[in-house]
TrEMBL record, chains A, B:
Protein keywords: Molybdenum cofactor biosynthesis
Positions of the UniProt region annotated as Disordered: 1-31
Biased composition (Basic and acidic residues): 1-20
Signal sequence coordinates: none
SMART domains in alphabetical order: MoCF_biosynth
Pfam annotation, one family: PBP_like
Protein name: Molybdopterin biosynthesis protein MoeA/LysR substrate binding-domain-containing protein
Length: 665, 665
């Protein structure tokens, strides 16, 4: 391991920004058809090449007149004019309006020669040849009574009055939204010069990576490649065009070949994906030998292993000079954080795109947070908008850098200064969202995982639920961050909370189909040769199991510990309600702690050990919130159905589920 | 005209919304590849199908150990373990860690059998066979000194710890941003079920419409079709797929054929484009006879002629039932306003997309505005953010419904209640932006149009400039809305303003190349047979012309009026600085009021009548604003270049332009 690269002399975040600013990743401007121009940015000014309108244009349906002929006309004493013809939109006028005459005209039609104003149809009457009112349909009138006076120019838009040829229409740097596209259409522009789209090559590295959709072999340590797709989506969002290259392993020659190919074809090359130091080393050497390494290692957490440099291009590559290069950290949250903080602004700049107004929100710390590592920390935080007129709550999310779920459990990052040792509860913080499209959830729930709960969550608008288990859920509810906790089974914790509703689920031992070991209860685990798989202590299922074990121990005059020690796999805990069942299905265990629902759904046998109540409890000071009321409303379904005598829709087809028999747990 | 449809009994805006809500324009959900899923919305919940990670995974580079072997180890008294092999990321472990041994392990690698923790490499030393430090590179060590104790599970992420198979990953209705795409990648998902994209057919009507890029014949009253492209871009922005149909004329059969084809192929059909009552009539009849008209005419201004209904589909069309239909007003600003207010929300709803946070901004009225027509008014307003911590200023923009420039001079609309008769200056208003991507300008300028000014504006970030002429510009500056006014030539108005800089331009008579009429000055216009074309009285050029005419009148002991009456075309005014020159070029005039710059650039002759100063003046209370400082900074270029003796870059190649000789106009 002696050739591993240590990053000493870490650069400051400012130095990293300067290094990135010194890179040239701007593509040449290009011309695109107007129908593909939405969201693009003009690379040069556009002046009107024509007058709009291109002619004196009637802006009302009515009669084109010489204004002088209407002077003095009013309701009591209309002017009468001979009707000499009609002009319709899209047609060349074939009449001339001489003194004493008028022509019917449609909105948008060309003003006929002689006419200088339009009288709107509502202020006129059609007359027959004798001057009487003309009412019968179909007869063409000869004369028109004009019941109002108009001035020259009335209801006429003169040529160029909207915009005249030679006038500045849109400036360089204008982002094209529907309205600018409208103006360009009016000018007859069907293709526009826009800032080019930076091509961003993404080279993901690491022998362990597999593309989503391909077959995964976990025994070889394979994992799906998260960074390539995440960063590609981020590149697109920032106005770049992502180009995904095949995975590079940790081999120098392969890496060199891929990086150079990407440099030839792209404005910016990002490497990403590997978390192992040896892969990072290989990239490092390629950049040093085949390009120019500007800095390696930045004093931010995460992001220490970030690289900034240039990669040489082939002599005959399309673009001159070297391509820009940035190496991202391997862990997904770290990679997205560094991308968001350092890379996306550079891509936007190159694409001429402004920073979206929604990229940053102001929040307030939901809890105090201690820090003091002497380098800047980009702290992932989740947000919760309480709709109370105050800034949303921000709470740190730290599941470890390797957790991909942090991507969706956090909404963005807070840049904590190296000098900041403590963030107070309530302190104002600026949260850089992972993406301008991120919308913080309206409801935060924590606690037990449960299939009926999943259905309940599906009925709410953008909830966030952290399946931390019943015990941890109650702890967090007490600490004041979440709106609600979901608790299964008995609990010691006394937490002040409002009961919103709940249900009962049957739990027990999940065994292979047909129950080949003939398991009948807990005693078989203690006394027999059964490989068991358990749930963690935070889980409500585990608590019910331990209570049952206590009962068995009392029967036998033993301690729970004694019995537990005799269960093969009692200490082997797996994460979610389906996990033990999957171990059983895979043949890795003979029995697992689980639900009848899961056992039946996945085709396993089930030995019932009891029922436990699942309750949804809200923090008392959040009960009035709209989102909590929505949650309570969704739970009402349980009572509505029960009143009608049927099984609540929420629990339909869930084996072993029933409405909670108690009103309060 | 007796068959024209009058819209009586207008529906309320609420009734219009209800009618639109009653339409079904939701497409069926679809499945898209993950790489195309950004911005789409999940149509169903996605549960994890695999454990992530799929194996117990080292989360540090170091050595895999049995934790028990390290108990008691510290810096002073390291534990020494035999090194039995190595495990790399992406490889199946080929070693077993027996008591007293360890294996080198890379971040991300599978934990070998027997090991239950990882010691990070920084807390270890490599030893040679004799237990001494091993420094020489290349020699493989036999033993490792472990300088710290670790607990079981340290630096190991257990299988499923990130997310376990069966757990709820993302709920229905989740919008897919880079982070959700990251989580889906981790789960190996390569295609996702999403809400479908509503297909929105756009049928534009009116004989006068020509597609941008095609040849225009203004003598026939042809204009470019603005609504089709504008609305198509708006549809796309709202999450729909626009489908443009060929133009329909005002012919019933053609219109029927097009609308029915669009209905067969789309979820929603929009008709748009025509401003003439007869075209609207034809559509109206088609909907009544071939569908179901729910309402016609809504009590909003603009939008009276809005239609809502359904259009029958062919029996064998892809989708069952009728398609939704909405008829938009013909004028572009009206069409976009009605689209934004009534149609975009329905498309977003059908696409499962939330209303963007940036769709509405709160502003304050820059001026008072009287209103009282008894129906809701959607008042177009421009915005100006003064960066003073207060809400941006909102000022009404009313150039008449037919003006396409209103599209870019206004930023959105304020819905003014029928009961509101007056909006006070400073009153808080909610502005629905024309598009969530609209960014209000940072600087608002008004006044004279000028080619050097156009260059100056190009150097600023998102300025808005309204070329209303010098006189009107000063009036608006005095009224307090804009930041700056650009004034050319002499002026009577005394307006308190700060001089930021300026230049001088040569003006006179533009004549055809070679000056065929031998024009030498104003006297030739008065005395000769020369067809002249003038600029409006608000223009600084016109003011200089009138002053010169005053001088000539004084010489002749006549009045200016006398002389002006003798100029053929004195009353014929055209809009922009290039407009008179274009009239001359087109042969419609023999001389036009203009600039030497324009004459030379467009290849005309020029008879100089003098120079006039152009000055940029800021409102005194805005001088400190960043955007105004940026404007002043761009003007400094004039002085910088002059100090060096050269022609300022801003004026380079502009014939007849020079640096302002006066420091203050």
């Amino acid at each position: 391991m002696s050739d591993r690269k240590e990053f000493r002399d870490l650069a400051t975040p400012e130095a990293a920004r300067e290094a990135i600013d010194s890179l040239d990743l701007s593509p040449a401007p290009e011309t695109v058809p107007l129908e593909n121009a939405r969201g693009r940015v003009l690379s040069e000014r556009i002046d009107a090449a024509i007058d709009v309108p291109g002619f004196d244009r009637a802006s009302m349906d009515g009669y084109a007149v010489r204004a002088r002929d209407t002077f003095g006309a009013d309701e009591a004493d209309p002017a009468e004019l001979d009707l000499v013809g009609a002009v319709h939109a899209g047609a060349t006028p074939e009449v001339t309006v001489e003194p004493g005459t008028c022509a019917e005209i449609s909105t948008g039609a060309v003003m006929p020669d002689g006419a200088d104003a339009v009288v709107m149809v509502e202020r006129t009457d059609e007359l027959d040849g004798e001057g009487g009112d003309l009412n019968a349909e179909g007869d063409a009138p000869d004369r028109i009574a004009i019941r109002t006076a108009v001035a020259p120019g009335d209801h006429v838009m003169s040529a160029g009055a909207d915009i005249a040829a030679g006038a500045r229409a849109l400036g360089p740097g204008t982002r094209l939204t529907p309205r600018e596209i409208g103006l360009l259409s009016a000018l007859g522009v069907d293709e526009v010069p826009v800032a080019g789209t930076p091509r961003v090559g993404i080279v993901s590295t690491g022998d362990e990576l597999v593309r989503p959709g391909d077959e995964l072999d976990p025994s070889r340590g394979e994992i799906y490649d998260v960074n390539s797709t995440t960063i590609a989506a981020g590149v697109e969002e920032a106005g770049g065009e992502p180009v995904l290259y095949p995975h590079a392993g940790d081999d120098y020659d392969e890496m060199e070949r891929l990086l150079r190919r990407a440099a030839d074809e792209c404005d910016l090359v990002l490497s990403s994906g590997s978390t192992s130091a040896s892969a990072v080393d290989v990239i490092y050497r390629v950049i040093e030998e085949r390009g120019d390494l500007l800095l390696h290692g930045v004093a931010v957490k995460p992001g220490k292993p970030m690289l900034v440099g240039r990669l040489d291009r082939r002599e005959d590559a399309d673009a001159p000079g070297p391509s820009a290069y940035i190496g991202l950290p391997g862990y997904p949250v770290s990679a997205l954080t560094i991308f968001r903080t350092f890379v996306a602004p550079a891509i936007r700049e190159a694409a001429g795109q402004p920073e979206p107004a929604t990229a940053t929100v102001e929040g307030r710390m939901a809890v105090g947070e201690r820090y003091g590592e002497g380098r800047m920390r980009l702290m992932p935080v989740g947000l919760l908008d309480l709709d109370d007129g105050d800034r949303p709550l921000a709470y740190p999310v730290d599941k470890g850098s390797g957790a991909t779920t942090s991507l969706v459990e956090a909404d963005g990052v807070v840049a904590v200064d190296p000098d900041t040792e403590y963030l107070d509860r309530g302190e104002r913080v600026s949260v850089q969202l992972f993406s301008p499209d991120v919308r913080p959830p309206t409801l935060l729930g924590v606690g037990e995982d449960d299939p009926a709960l999943n259905r309940l969550l599906d009925r709410l608008e953008s909830p966030r639920y952290l399946p931390v288990g019943s015990r941890e859920g109650l702890r967090r509810l007490r600490d004041g961050v979440p709106d609600a906790a979901v608790v299964a089974g008995p609990t010691d914790r006394e937490v002040d909370a409002a009961y919103l509703g709940g249900w009962t689920r049957e739990w027990g031992l999940v065994v292979p189909g047909g129950n080949p070991d003939g398991v009948t209860g807990l005693a078989d685990l203690v006394d027999g040769d059964v490989r068991f798989v358990n749930r963690p202590t935070d889980s409500g299922l585990r608590r019910s199991l331990d209570d049952a074990l206590d009962d068995l121990a009392a029967d036998r005059d033993a301690s729970r510990r004694d019995l537990a020690d005799r269960i093969d796999g009692y200490e082997l805990t797996v994460r979610a309600f389906e996990s033990p069942v999957r171990k059983v299905l895979a043949g890795d265990a003979d029995a697992g702690l689980g639900l009848r629902e899961t056992a039946e759904r996945l085709g396993c046998g089930f030995v019932s050990l009891g029922e436990q109540s699942v309750s949804v409890r809200a923090a008392p000071d959040r009960v009035e919130r709209d989102a909590v009321a929505e949650l309570a409303g969704a739970l009402d379904d349980l009572d509505d159905a029960a009143d009608g005598g049927g099984k609540p829709d929420l629990l339909a087809d869930l084996a072993g589920y029933s409405r909670n028999s108690r009103n309060d747990p």
